[in-house]
Amino acid sequence: MAPGKFGVVALVGRPNAGKSTLLNRMLGQKVSITSPKPQTTRNRIVGILNDERGQIAFLDTPGIHKPLHKLNVRMMDTVRASLSEADVIALIVDAAEPFGRGDQYVLDTMKQTEGAKRFAILNKADKLKKIKLLPIIERTAATELFEEIVPISATTGDGVDHLVDLFFASLPEGEARYSTEDYTTQPERFFAAEIVREKLLKYTGDELPYTTAVAVDRWEEDEAKNLIKIYATIFVERDSQKPIIIGKGGDMAKRIGTEARHELEATLGTKVFLDLHVGVHERWREDERFLGELDWPLKGECPNVTPSVASNRCGWVVRSSCRPPTPVPRYARDDIRSLALQGPVELTEKAFVLPPAFVHADVKIQKHLGA
């Protein structure tokens, strides 16, 4: 039997070029949220494609842009890290948009990459007539940066199968590094937060395109009832933004929660109880600690303590080296912080401790909403 192939393909490009839509199309599964709003993807999302030819690990990255906040700086650090890991760098271009300064900035970024093969993927080609697409292909070829230039439509699927064929043809032989049954490395709690944020963008994106964040605070599974209970907080930067999310009589929050719950039930294959809160954290996009706490489910660790178990679930017992096992009460933010600061601690499952997103003195829970 011929050996299979394995490689890493980084999907990069300007905001709103269609990277996440393309990833979902190639996998046949939704692993990355989408929105017409730029900068929807804030973290690196790993999607895993398995077939008889081998395995590809796709890295869906934030859109390349000049950062204005610490959040954006972290996003661009994620892009650079992905570029350094990739066997193939796939630059996704919105072919329906005119070439501008942002596109030149992306090309300059591509010039700094070394070692990886580079593809230019001209997305949204279905919106253009061939006579308008040919000059874009010629301009892209003139850069002499890319081994392949491939017009596609991530929305309709045109050209995507051919693109996947080219990816496999360009990858080295190697054993799969992920389980062939997996299609993403995302923890379920992170995915749940992203689904809520997607619905937020859908219904409040015009008013609050960049100022919201979502953290899952608790995750409880009841196997007997085939039920998952998810408790999440939507963070905004000002009190005046809360009514936009809550809506008249709570109708907007209910709409967001209900739609997110239905999608989670379809994805997780179980009943879901989704409980939403609205909280205020001023200038959260500049708060390094808070941003790290939002990321921790992707890293398999809690940023404030040293875990002995990298769990995707929400139940933890904090064990300190200087005292017996200590179950920490719900919402005991200051207790968790002081315990973590006393020295090395380890986390084991079986009891509930408030996750790190709440371990922040400036976070104020303003409103409880059942969805």
Description:
Helix 6 runs antiparallel to helix 8 (251-268). The chain has helices spanning 19-27, 70-85, 101-111, 130-142, 160-170, 188-204, 242-246, 251-268, 288-299, 333-341; strands at 5-13, 45-51, 54-60, 88-94, 117-123, 148-151, 213-222, 227-236, 271-280, 315-320, 345-352, 364-370. The radius of gyration is 22 Å and the shape is globular. Strand 2 and strand 3 (54-60) form a beta hairpin. The protein is an alpha/beta fold. The longest helix has 18 residues, at 251-268. A six-stranded mixed sheet has the order 2-3-1-4-5-6, with helices on both faces. A four-stranded mixed sheet has the order 7-8-9-12. Strands 10-11 form a two-stranded antiparallel ribbon. Residues 297-371 have low confidence and may be disordered. It starts with a strand and ends with a strand. It is built from ten helices and twelve strands.
